[in-house]
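User: My notes are a mess, but here's the protein and LJUCG4UG's SMILES. Can you give me a structure?
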Amino acid sequence: MTTTKLPIHLQDSTLYRTQSYINGQWVAADDASTFTVDNPSTGAIIAKVCNLGAAETERAIDAANKAQKAWRARTGKDRAAILRRWFDLILANAEDLAQIMTLEQGKPIAESRGEIVYGASFVEWFAEQAKRVTGDIMASPNASNRMLVMREPIGVCAAITPWNFPNAMITRKVAPALAAGCTVVLKPAEQTPLSALALAELAERAGIPAGVMNIIAADSERSIAVGKVLCASPIVKKVTFTGSTPVGRILLQQSAPTVKKLSLELGGLAPFIVFDDADIDAAVDGAIVSKYRNAGQTCVCANRLYVHAAVYDQFIEKLAVKVRSVLKVGDGFAQAVTQGPLIDDAAVAKVQEHVKDAVDKGAKVVMGGKAHALGGRFYEPTILSNVGEDMLCMREETFGPVAPVVKFTDEAHVIELANNTEYGLASYFYSRDVGRIFRVAEALEYGMVGVNTGLISNEVAPFGGVKQSGLGREGSIYGMDDFMELKYVCLGGI
Ligand SMILES: O=CCCCC(=O)O
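Assistant: No problem, the inputs look usable. Here's the predicted complex:
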């Protein structure tokens, strides 16, 4: 361990890891270099983390490859028991994991506690699913043949995870991979490596064997080199990534020469539609959960709010009242804070650019619209009215606490507007008309549709997008499919 005095009090300070984890060993970078991780609330440096690169990544792949044979040979029941121990340890250390998350990511401590439970739910779910891998016997068209289909682990997997959910996006990828019998090399986001390394410490304690789960932490520059090695390696059979659509496209390109399987959870531009027959109070509550969760830094956050003209003024008024009463901006550790800082200065600049562009094009600031008086990376919860389709906030993910509200009058037209994007991750609408509910849910070109709810994620749900929002599904009974191959066996001469 390279830690000295920790910036927070943990019940178990050994969870505060700054070295990477390869083949069951905690390791520094070959050149002994480190990178700094800061607290987005204060800008203070909270850790110097070992900065690994291409050579260390090759060794991690090699370790994962060597561990693969024995891990896949174990029974699903055996793997399930180990994953279950990991789940129990995550919950037993939930408070420390939440503290580490708020420190490096900035989200309010209540949200971090929620994410630890959410992240653990994937480990529990896939521990259960590990025992339920099945195959098929097909009716053969040839009387003397018998046809079997088996499911087998795909092999060594690379997982590249984002900073906005530093725990749950790891467990949603690693748990199904391990359950399926795959081994993993994980590269967490450079902004939030501490949550990943703490999870690895618990995985080691749970008895996950050396080489089965490896973690490479790296700064932004070396992360590019690490990503290239993972994509180029012929040993790595699959890459699973959550992040932006542009980076997803690069990973697809880099993986083409070795024809890898990819799961991509990419960007979104979620429409949130409120029809005139909706329960407006419920829609306001749903909008707050969907829009301001994690300060708007979530791929499934409502990005564009479309509200029917008949309820537009009422909705905006109620939304503003509620936002004022429930959202308190501040340091994630401070009492009653419900909105933390944005992750970095670039995130603040993007939000400012989107708001300025909207205002320049005629949007009206109902509330917020500027940096918070606390300064730093804090931004005021913002509502914009009089918004038009030509504004940046309607075309690109803002990834911040900005709710642009557009007026509409016609169902078919609002569906057309909602679908008029390359993205297709999450969408939401509020209505009490059962005919409309089916019509609109079927018409929306999205992988996920929330009807009369702003929160759709859990371990049972197939999470994923269509169009340029990604490939594959995570969580759910389908979540292990992406980590397995089908093998067809034909028995002749029967
Ligand atoms: O940015 C994407 C994170 C997904 C959060 C969720 O699972 O709801």
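The domain at 13-266+470-488 is CATH 3.40.605.10 (Aldehyde Dehydrogenase; Chain A, domain 1).
User: Great, I'll file this with my notes.
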